[in-house]
Amino acid sequence: MITKPRGTEDVLPKDSKLWQHIEETARGVCERFGYKEIRTPVFEDTALFQRGVGDTTDVVQKEMYTFEDKGGRSLTLKPEGTATLVRSYIENSLYANPQPTKLSYIIPCFRYEKPQSGRLREFHQFGIECFGAESPATDAEVISLAHMFLKELGLTGIQLNINSIGCAVCKKEYNEKLRNYFEGYKDRLCPTCLERLEKNPMRIIDCKSEICSEIAKTAPKMIDYLCDDCSGHFESVKERLDNMGIDYVINPDIVRGLDYYTKTVFEFVSDALGAQSTVCGGGRYSGLVEELGGKPADGIGFAAGLERLVLVIKKQQPDACSLETASDLFVATMGDEAEKFAQKLIFELRNLGVSAEQDLCGRSLKAQMKYADKLGARNSIVIGDDEIVAQTAKLKNMKTGEAVDISLHAEVLAKKLEEVR
Ligand code: HAM
Fold first, then answer.
1. Alpha carbon distance 50, 54 (integer Å)
2. pLDDT confidence of 319, banded at 50, 70, 90?
3. Atom of ligand 1 nearest to the CA of 309
4. Closest CA to 123 of 172, 166, 63, 169
5. Is-contact 238 248, C-beta < 8 A?
6. Quick one: which of 263, 57, 240, 262 has its CA closest to 147?
7. Do 295 and 95 contact (CB within 8 A), yes or no?
C-alpha cells in the first residue's frame, strides 16, 4: 500500500469544516482591514528564496524542496510566502498603485523539517504583506489584524511577543558585538553556526541545536543596540498597541528564522501547544524589495500556521470539530420507479438550494432510514407508488418523529423545509 509522504497530512471531511471556518475568518478580517487576496505559484525560481530568505537560514540551507524541471531550471516549492509576494509586487508593478499595497494569501508551504506535532513538511499559512509604508502605524495595524484574527477564532492563552532587531545601520554594530561574543565559544558551536559566525552571527541565536541555543542565551541583545530611528519606531509601535488595548510582552530573544527582517518582529505563541507553540510570526523587512530587484519599498507582514491553529482549536473548543453540515432532507424510496422519481425531485430541490440525499447503494427501506439517521438528516420522506400517484408524502422530523403531509412538488417542499429549518 502506498501511504502519504512523511510530514504531510490529509484533512478529512470531519475536519474540513473547521479549516473552512479558519479560512473564512481570515478572509473576513482581511476584508475589514483592506487586504486583498493574491494567488501565486506553488513553485518559484530557487534563486528567489536563496536571495530573499537568506542563504544562511535553516530554511535555505537544509529545508527546501528543490528540483530541476525537464528544462533544466532549478525550482523550489515555496517554503514561505513573503519572498514570492515581493517578487509578484515587483513583477506586476503593484507599486504603481496608491500605496500601501495590502495583500493576503492562504498557501501551502514546504519545508524538509523533522516532523512532529505542529511541525510538518507540507503545511499551510494564512499571511498578509503590506508594501510601501514605513510608518509605525503600519506595524501596529498589521499586528492588530493578527490579534483580531486569533481572537475571532476564540483562541485563549495566546501571548504576543514583540522585539526590534534594528536596521542595516545598527545591525552592523550589533553583529560585531555578537561575533566577538560567539568567538569565545568557537570550539562548541555546531558546524553550521561556525559558518554563520563569519557570514551572519545573528542566525546562531536561532539555531535549533541544544548547545548553540544554550550559548545564545547570554549573548548581547539587539534591543540594547538600536539606533535612534529604530528605537523611536519601536516606542511608537508599542504606544499604538497600548492605545488599541493589545497586550504584549517585549521579548529580546525573538530574532525570527528568516534573514529579511528589520525593526519590528513579533510572534503569537499558544500555551496549548508543546514545542511548536508559535501560531503566527512576522515582522518588518526594509531591504527585501530592493534586494529582489525592485525600487526601495518597505514591507511588513505575518503568517499563521493553519495546522497549528487547528491543533489549538481542537484542544480548546472540541465542539468546533463537529461542524459537519447535516442534510435538510433524506428521501427514502420503495421500488425502482420511486427511486427514479426521488432522484429527479432531489435534483430539483438541490437546484432550489436544499441539501437533500438519497440512498445510492440499494439499501432496504429499514437500512435507508438507519443511513438517514447516520447522515444526521433533519427530515425524511418515504416515497412509494402510492405517494407518486397522490403527489404527497409524510414529511417526518427525524428528531421529534412528528410528521405532516407535504406536496411532492419541489417548490412547495423546499418552502416547507425552509420554514422548519
Ligand atoms: P515563519 O515563522 O517561518 O514565518 O512561519 C510562520 C508560521 O508558519 C509559524 O509561526 C508557524 O505557525 C507556521 N509554520 C512554520 N513552519 C511550519 C512547519 N514546518 N509546520 C507547520 N507550521 C509551520 C514566515 O514564513 C514568514 N514568511 C512570515 C512573514 C510574513 N513575515 C513577514 N511576512
1. 5
2. confident
3. 12
4. 63
5. yes
6. 240
7. yes
CA–CA distances in Å: residue 166 to residues 4, 87, 141, 285, 346:
42, 24, 19, 10, 63
List every span in the chain annotated with CATH 3.30.930.10: 13-167+227-320
- For ligand 1, what atom is nearest to the CA of residue 284? 32
Residue extent(s) of CATH 3.40.50.800 domains in the chain:
329-420
- Tell me, in angstroms, the distance from the centre of ligand 1 to residue 32's CA: 23
User: CA 300 to CA 279: how far, in whole Å?
Assistant: 17
Taking only the tens place, the pLDDT of each residue in 204-244 is 998 888 999 999 999 999 999 999 999 999 999 999 999 99
User: What secondary structure does DSSP assign to 33-45, as a single string?
Assistant: HT-EE----SEEE
Atom of ligand 1 nearest to the CA of 127: 30
Q: Which fold has domain 329-420?
A: Rossmann fold (3.40.50)
Tell me, in angstroms, the distance from the centre of ligand 1 to residue 394's CA.
54
Q: Is the pLDDT of residue 322 over 70?
A: no
Which cell numbers in the block locate residue 115? 516532523
pTM of the model: 0.94
Does 139 contact ligand 1 (Cβ within 6 A)? no
Integer Cα distance of 359 and 367 in angstroms: 9
- Protein residue with least CA distance to atom 31, ligand 1: 282
CA–centroid distance, 305 to ligand 1, in Å, is: 6
Q: Which CATH superfamily is domain 13-167+227-320 in?
A: Bira Bifunctional Protein; Domain 2 (3.30.930.10)
Ligand 1, atom 14: closest residue by C-alpha: 305
Which of 143, 278, 284, 292 best tests ligand 1's pocket when mutated (most atoms within 8 Å of CB)?
278
Q: What amino acid occupies position 233?
A: H
Residue identifier of the C-alpha nearest atom 6 of ligand 1: 303
Among candidates 365, 402, 405, which has minimal Cα distance to 387? 405
Q: What's the rounded Cα separation, in Å, for the pair 242 and 144?
A: 11
What is the DSSP secondary-structure string of 148-187?
A: HHHHHTT--SEEEEEEE---HHHHHHHHHHHHHHHHTTTT
Spacing, Cα 188 to ligand 1 middle (Å):
29
* 3-state secondary structure at position 69: coil
Q: Which grid coordinates are listed for 406?
A: 407535504
**Contact yes or no for 59/46 (Cβ under 8 A):** no
Residue to probe by mutation, ligand 1, list 308, 310, 311, 312, most atoms within 8 Å of CB: 308
